[in-house]
Amino acid sequence: MKFRETSLAGVVFVEPELRGDDRGQFARMFCVDEFAAQGLETVFVQQNMSKTNQKGTLRGLHFQRAPHAEAKLIRCVSGAVYDVLVDLRPDSPTFGRWEAFELTGANSHAVYAPPGMAHGFQTLTDDVEMTYLHSARYAPAAEGGVRWDDPRFAIRWPMAPTVLAEKDRHWPDFGA
To answer: pTM score > 0.70 for this model?
Structure first.
């Protein structure tokens, strides 16, 4: 695997080393030794997936509050997404900044998000499947979010959302 720093402190872009032959491809997607060597979380206690039917659907921006804050390893299994992380860690040098990544089933790339990041994505195709490894179990009382169009962050989404859950439509602005 290749690990690349991003513009957000602690966020790492992960590129698997794809090996192919006439049968198709193979790649290691997670290795405890390689992640530990990068100083990344190596204990994941939950794996979630989402399927999204329609292009333009926007999910997020979600996070879990301490003490249930979680590191995530985020990957698109099929289709394509514009994946966004926002740094909500007050002590971080990149507090309040965001970065986006194009994750697709074809490129097999992943993004590692440390605890304290808000996460969301917009589908760029129909029929998208995402998978996430989490370092903490889901705790409903710790769930939080910020609005996808919060002016403080001014995220440049690829298109106007075609589908947006009521919950995501009504998250507060950050700091409100």
So the answer is: yes
